[in-house]
């Protein structure tokens, strides 16, 4: 799947994102509003990942969905 599809259907994907990254709040997901760089940044902050780790996490999630 490509990120454009996620961005275009953000409300539909928010539940799946919360399943994967439960530390992210609904407010944070609303604020991210489909922007991949924002999602990666929040994952970095919440989980203590490096930028590369966060990007890989999102890539892995995309390949599964």
Verbal overview:
- By secondary structure, this protein is mainly alpha-helical.
- It has one domain: YjbJ (Protein Yjbj, Chain: A), CATH 1.10.1470.
- Helix content is about 75%, strand content about 0%.
- It has five helices and no strands.
- It has helices at about 5-10, 10-20, 25-30, 35-45, 50-65.
- α4 (about 35-45) packs across α5 (about 50-65).
- The radius of gyration is 11 Å and the shape is globular.
- The termini are close together.
- The model has no long low-confidence stretch (mean pLDDT about 95).
The residue-averaged pLDDT reads 93
Measured as a percent range, the helix fraction is: over 70%
* Low-confidence spans: none
Radius of gyration using CA atoms only: 11 Å
Strand tally = 0
Kindly, what is the distance between the CA atoms of the first and last residues, rounded to a whole number of angstroms? 7 Å
* H/E element order: HHHHH
Number of domains: 1
> Architecture in CATH?
Orthogonal Bundle
Topology:
Layout: H1 3-8, H2 10-20, H3 26-32, H4 36-47, H5 51-64
Quick take:
The protein has 65 residues and is mostly helical. The protein has helices spanning 3-8, 10-20, 26-32, 36-47, 51-64.
Please tag this protein with its features.
65 residues; mainly alpha; Protein Yjbj, Chain: A; 5 helices; 0% strand; globular
């Amino acid at each position: 799947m490509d990120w454009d599809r996620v961005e275009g259907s953000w409300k539909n994907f928010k539940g799946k994102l919360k399943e994967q990254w439960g530390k992210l709040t609904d407010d944070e997901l609303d604020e991210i509003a489909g922007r991949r760089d924002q999602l990666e940044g929040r994952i970095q902050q919440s989980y203590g990942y490096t930028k590369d780790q966060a990007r890989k996490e999102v890539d892995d999630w995309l390949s599964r969905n």
